Amino acid sequence: MKLSFKVLVALLGMHTLLYAQHSPSNLEYVDPTIGGVGHILEPTRPTAHLPNSMVRVYPSKRDQLDDQLGFFPLTIISHRLGELFGIMPFSGSPTQQAFEQKYSFDFEKAAPHHYQVFLEESNINIEFIPAGKGGYFHFKYPNGKENQVLLMLRHGGQLSQEENNAISGREDFNGMRAWFYGEFSKPVNFVKKGGKEGEKQFASVSTSHSELDFRYAISFISKEQAKKNLKEAIPGWGKAEVLAKARQSWDRVLNQVQVEGGTEAQKRTFYTALYRSYERMIDITEQGQYYSAYDHKVHKADRPFYVDNWIWDTYLSLEPLQMILNPEMESDKISSYIRMYQQSGWMPSFAVLWGEHACMTGNHAAVWIADAWMKGVRNYDLPAAYEGLKKNALQGTLLPWRYGPMCSLDTFYHERGYYPALRPGEEETVPQVHNFERRQAVAVTLQHSYGDWALAQLGRYLNKEKDVQLLLGKAQNYKNVFRAEKGFMWPKDAQGNWIEPFDPKFSGGPGGRAYFTENNAYIYNWDVKHDLKGLFELMGGRTAAEAKLDNLFRESLGRSKYQLWAEFPDATALVGQYSMGNEPTFHIPYLYNYVGAPWKTQKRIRMLINTWYPDNLFGIPGDEDGGGMSAFVVFSMMGFNPVTPGIPIYNIGSPFFNKMSIKLHNGKTFTVVAHHNSAENKYIQSATLNGKSWNKPWFEHEDLMNGGTLELTMGKMPNKAWGSAEADAPPSSLEFNPLGL
């Protein structure tokens, strides 16, 4: 029978009361549905999980507007790369089609610690609560029906009935295995179903009860370990205690940053972005041991082992943010990378659960680890890290989406100082080049210049002077692909000739991949974070660089939007040629601080965040990629942002709140106060740091970690003199030596 409207209202009212019984916290501002409709590419998902935990769950559907809910994975194995197992309640005879059910988003409640949805056709209510390595489902059925819970394998494996109303499963995927062990709160009848050829295997359990709980845990070691993980994560029945623990876990991290002032919408955007900054990496340590796909062995562990890092997306903002909020965890994550190198022979880049996922470009692990070391995050074996990073830099391939030893193009790079490009229509002759990703020749040259600079900083600390000189020389390779008379980064062929014809806005095929990575030359003109001073000199000086920055935000597309997006689907959230929706652009608005116009940084940041990060379904302007984009929002709304990981400073922008404070792990608090702050008053008139007049549009990491106070007086009109002197510009030089060595 159908549930009456009164019953439904009462059901949802109980849910609301459950939340209201707790004191207000920043968790109340988090809305996981923000960004749930992708502008062009992938939407975000309303993921329920604990910070950096193994089990992450969201409803399987196309996006937030899809009213067909397929199933719930028992966990996702990597952001956008797949799901493990599947579970779905159903009333009636179980079939494969039961995994597609209708629901109403009017009766969907999403939060980091609790997801709830009502299936409008079957009148079933579903709740999920994350519990670290496990999870807790509560199903409420209408009376008078044959009530089922369906379980499905997403890959090859098996489902098995266990004693005492329990069920287990194993899935084989990507060269490794995962297990779950789960228990039902009431007696159930188990029926194993063999799907037709080409269909997924699934099983059903039936019950006569109108309410049923299911608690489970995941393991990458064994079924027995999954059972132990369940006992540890969820020792008893009853969702209230599981929910309270989940809420406490999120309160600990979300309440670490407190804001005052701003609008309710801005707080929703900010705290949702902070929540999304805790999806990666994930700790897969299971009671003092972990399975590593890097040598396919189970290891004992005296510290956590983390996986799932898409470092091309995360090294710019996410990892620097966590160095402030959780430096101990950052050390554990870097230690995990070092162990992966020792187990596999190569320092990973995209370190996912099942091993290295050869993806994107660059030796960004070098940048990440150099940034950590310069900021005092040092609880790991630096000589071992340096060994692995140096091997990647000097012996590994630079090819996009490839991994392992060098090929002929890498040899060319090390001999000639740039990655050679093909002319339009010229056939590829190097078999190792990915047939879709292509050479990305200019982007590879630029990003490895930065990686080699970062590695040189670590070499200095280890007294590797010969290495340092070699690497600093390679760090200047970006100059080899800058065409001065055109004012752009420009591809070269193997003979050293500039590629013609070439359109800086549009050349390179899908995503510009013949020459760039997902973006065009207008964006990659600024991808020299480690030597901005040298870049500006190539452009004709600071004044000329400022004019080029202005033009970036004003230049026309030169074609229709549908033509542009047919080739550059990552170029979302456009302002002129600037794309807010892709990671290589994040530092660019802050570059005005380096050319004597900090007021333009303040202007751009306010406009970009207000325009492209609203608190609604369209609030993520590009692929989120596990926190990479959200961490940029957290930084920018706090009022500062790193530009060059590896140089331990922060650029000042325009804070969104009257006051922001970060509780640091050393017991101190860093505070940003913005007097007279408002939507109109976005420009800095004057500043003090720890009570002293401050005319620089930047401050040091040490100032932050010492618990300093940055006070800004805001106004409606820009103070074009503040921070504009060349001597006040942030440091950015290839020879910068933060260690004083």
Task: Jot down its keywords.
single chain; 741 residues; alpha+beta; 8-stranded antiparallel β-sheet; 6-stranded mixed β-sheet; 29% helix; globular; disordered N terminus
Produce the secondary structure layout.
Layout: H1 5-20, E1 48-49, E2 56-57, E3 68-69, E4 75-78, E5 82-84, E6 86-91, E7 101-102, E8 108-111, E9 114-119, E10 124-130, E11 134-140, E12 147-152, E13 156-162, E14 166-173, E15 176-184, E16 189-193, E17 202-207, E18 211-219, H2 223-233, H3 239-254, E19 257-260, H4 264-276, E20 282-283, E21 289-292, E22 297-300, E23 306-307, E24 309-310, H5 311-314, H6 318-325, H7 327-344, E25 350-352, E26 355-356, H8 364-374, H9 382-395, H10 408-416, H11 441-461, H12 465-474, E27 482-483, E28 488-489, H13 521-524, H14 532-539, H15 542-552, H16 561-567, E29 574-575, E30 578-579, H17 598-612, H18 628-638, E31 640-641, E32 649-652, E33 659-663, E34 669-675, E35 683-689, E36 692-693, E37 698-700, H19 701-705, E38 709-715
Parallel strand pairs: 34-38
Antiparallel strand pairs: 1-2, 3-7, 4-5, 6-12, 8-9, 9-10, 10-11, 11-18, 12-17, 13-14, 14-15, 15-18, 16-17, 19-33, 20-23, 21-22, 24-25, 25-26, 27-28, 29-30, 31-32, 32-37, 33-34, 35-36, 35-38
Characterise this structure.
With 741 residues, the protein is of the alpha+beta class. The protein is built from 19 helices and 38 strands. An 8-stranded antiparallel β-sheet has the order 8-9-10-11-18-15-14-13. It has a 6-stranded mixed β-sheet with strand order 19-33-34-38-35-36. Strands 6-12-17-16 form a 4-stranded antiparallel β-sheet, with no helix packed on it. The protein is globular and about 80 Å long.
